[in-house]
Amino acid sequence: MRGVAQLALTELVKGLEFWPERSLLLEKDELMADESHESLESIRLEKLRRIEALGLDPWGSRFDGHQPIADVRQIPIPEGAERGPKVRVAGRIMLRRGQGKVNFLELRDWTDRIQIFVGKNQVGEASWNLAAELDLSDLLGVDGALGYTKTGELTIFAESLTFLAKSLAPPPEKWHGLTDHEQRSRQRYVDLFSNPESMTTFLGRTKVLAAFRKVMAERSFVEVETPTMQVIAGGAAARPFITHHNTLDLDLFLRIAPELYLKRLLVGGMERVFEIGRVYRNEGISPKHNPEFTMLEAYQAYGDYHSMMDLTEALISGAVEAVGGGFVRPWGESSVDFTPPWPRRTYADLFQEHAGVDPTDTVAVLAKAEELGMATTGKDPDVVVSEIFERLVEDSLIGPIFVIDYPAAICPLTKRKSSNPRVAERFELFVHGMELANAYTELNDPLLQESLFRTQLAGQKAEDSMAKMDDDFVRALKHAMPPAGGLGIGMDRLCMLLMNKSNIRDVILFPLMRPQA
């Protein structure tokens, strides 16, 4: 091992570029692979005490004026100059190599990484004594001049060091950071600083959210907040999480959707509203499902589901542009072309194409279900149609594609088409078989809404959502809700597609995990 380290040190002296994937800290506690984790921490504790003995606070203090490393890397250096401008940076030590009176560090912040040259003669005795106690993952501030090494590596030539925080826990043993998928999700704090790709993913997610808000503001939508604890769980068919308010001695539900409260705001005269927030569904976990997820839900008075298709294209196109990389994006071994406009196909046409039967022909639909080995007893024929559609059609939808005009029986909150009351004015957006958005021309007839609620409630178990009539929502509709379009977009799934991640946990900072034994 020491021979490998010495070879790496020789490469350093030759001025090679240093990355953590190719590097080891030349310190006893990092080289001795047989040392226990507790032993490594004890060595770091001893270094903490030595830092204190230097008269320094090992937990640091305010460090104003530091520049993002990505910005520093863009600063021009005058041609022919030995050194460029003075800069100040702060970040985590990801690499440390050195010998004699010279140390090289790699410092990384949330924007980029840069090499630091620490020379005894350049930083002075105090900073040099500090440099001797540094470990991987320590947080450090650096003041110095920007320049290049003889081999052209952009480097900050340190003039002083400021200790900002001691890492008592050793970094991941693997040179390239955490590799175990589950551990990356459990220890996101380590994943973020040790895997640049993970940081890029989650900063990309923030750009998606910001882009959505920008597009909504440009279209005169206002962002609102509705209750996440509700007396009645409504707005979707899903099993809710139940909690209890002690003072009121009242069972409450974590919301499964903000829909019914946002529609109340339409009644009140807020004509364009949206909310980006968490919703909760007490259901399974899979690569495409997390029980707690983020959704945009929006409502536009005097619009319809065609208005929502236009809005959906604008929102996702804006997000693609904000993330960067173009409209044709990789997805696993395939790709997705988000270039608008996107095709719009009717549910019935797609069903006929893939199932080979007319979805309105009940006899043929039931025969097809039997052929597929699907149970049909006690089910509405449109529910059977929906189950066949999920099995035979959805996975073939590469998209982006709008599937429009769904069977009305499975859309209780949706306005029917005036030309065909068996069809609801609804669309779902699919990309590579994954539902990304869902939208309706909203039902605003209070009498029909109440009737549909009662029909739906008849088949619900007590513990499921919408197992109680939301009388106040019906009362609100009686005050006249304007005709409207409504839209929901799953933000986590969209981020999966834009960041090319096959597991939803990879785009949720802190996904739900089974407790460790």
Quick structural summary:
With 517 residues, the protein is an alpha+beta fold. It is 33% helix and 25% strand. It has helices spanning 2-13, 28-31, 37-53, 69-72, 120-131, 181-186, 188-194, 196-218, 259-268, 305-323, 347-355, 362-371, 381-392, 446-457, 471-477, 491-499; strands at residues 86-99, 102-108, 113-119, 139-148, 154-165, 222-223, 229-230, 242-245, 250-254, 272-280, 292-301, 328-331, 334-337, 344-346, 401-407, 416-417, 420-431, 434-441, 484-490.
Describe this structure in words.
- With 517 residues, this protein is of the alpha+beta class.
- The chain has helices spanning 2-13, 28-31, 37-53, 69-72, 120-131, 181-186, 188-194, 196-218, 259-268, 305-323, 347-355, 362-371, 381-392, 446-457, 471-477, 491-499; strands at 86-99, 102-108, 113-119, 139-148, 154-165, 222-223, 229-230, 242-245, 250-254, 272-280, 292-301, 328-331, 334-337, 344-346, 401-407, 416-417, 420-431, 434-441, 484-490.
- Strands 6, 10, 11, 14, 15, 16, 17, 18 and 19 form a 9-stranded mixed sheet that branches. Strands 1-2-3-5-4 form a 5-stranded mixed barrel. It has a 3-stranded antiparallel sheet with strand order 7-9-8, with no helix packed on it.
- α8 packs across α10 and α14 runs antiparallel to α15.
